[in-house]
Batch of 2 targets.
Target 1
Amino acid sequence: MKTRLNKFLADRGMCSRRKADELISAGKVFVNGARAELGMMVDESDDVRLRGREVVKKKPETVYFAFHKPVGIITSVDPNARDSVISFLHLPMLVFPVGRLDVASSGLLLLTNDGRLSESITNPRHNHEKEYVVTVDREIKDGDLRAMAQGIMILGSITKPAVVRRESARIFSIILTEGRNRQIRRMCEALGYDVKNLVRVRVMNIELGNLPVGACRPLTKKEVTELLRSTLGEN
């Protein structure tokens, strides 16, 4: 049965559907020797190649990992990219990061080959929570914490309301339900602060906990069950 190319790639753990569309538009995907087009339909009889490598015909078993990304590692799946998550971990199966965590930040990054899950978590319409602990260069004012909680102007629009809590004079935690590019850093910059350390400590029900920097672990069955129920409505 034919399926859309972006879904075909996502179902085989290559990337999310959104990322698949980006790769197709960039000319990175070929079908039966010809450059792929957005919206085209394929099945297991077609020769689908991503960056020159053949895409597996059958859907792999879905896997889910928590990774404590170090500072300096980028969330790229390009096998040729230096210091990428994929080259750092050398996992025996194909996975991709769920969303972004910028190179200067550390903390929890989910890895999976489940394109539907990635699409749901990264879609801002679904309001899935991500929690961060942030250290800035000087004591942060209560009024500025309230401003971040209510929403401030960055990138041409107001950020969604957030849950913000002071941890100490220069440290605060923030729970976001959106993920704009460098959002927390831009929010702090707009208020006159320089971020010195930024760690993501939670994505929905998955917590970083005491996972060492650079370490990766499979999610527990309970974690996966709750994650799929919250994102895809699966039991």
Target 2
Amino acid sequence: MPGLRLAQELSGEGQHEPAALEYRRLALSVTDPKARGGLFWVTAYEYTRARQWNLAPALLDRAEDSDRELKSVALLLRAEVASAEKKHVEAVYYLQSAVGEETTSDMRKFVVRRVAGEHLRAGQSAQARVVLSQAPGNEAAALAALQSYERERDKSPVLGGVLGLIPGLGYMYAGEYANGLRSLILNGLFMGAMVYSGVEDQWGAFAVISFFELTWYSGSIYGGIDAAQRYNRARQERCLEAVQGQAAFVPDFKQLPIVSLQFRF
């Protein structure tokens, strides 16, 4: 098909938005419904790779209108969009709806892992455990990681901020001992300099040092909050790595405009 090679080359070079424009142009120029549907689908796919999430749903609607057989692969892409927009429960719905009687084993494995991952992102670890427990394959490693995750507890950002009133302690609460020690030393030096300048009646220096110490001290408080949030994100990401791994799908570009997905784990 004329123009298809250009779109594929643009995509391969990481120029996903120009590739999407080229695929869309091709979709509008063909008359075959299956080819048009496939080209609209890959246009939406390229926009998701360009992080233009808001442009994908309308194109997926057009893909399904052109070829109803694209419903399941359109649902997978809708789930990607919902997940990127942090609508994790919606992503679960799309993923589960994509599974049908004709679903391949690779797609079922992909859906199980991604559904469990979306539940985890939504703070629903119990539902993630149920999904993995009922999976047809062996998900023992993922279940073990999930059980370990549930045994541990998140750090409280509020408590991290309160502990940050004592310079460095908020960081240490979240396990960031180097940052905590750095905060303690810097605040200690500035506080010592404040005391010294006050005793020596160097009020100009006292004012300047106080300004900088206020910055460092407030940084200790907010740093304790951020450190707790970083700890929680890192803990969840480690569990997600074990639960869903590198589960992803890509279209077989050689088959376009027919949409054929390859699943990777």
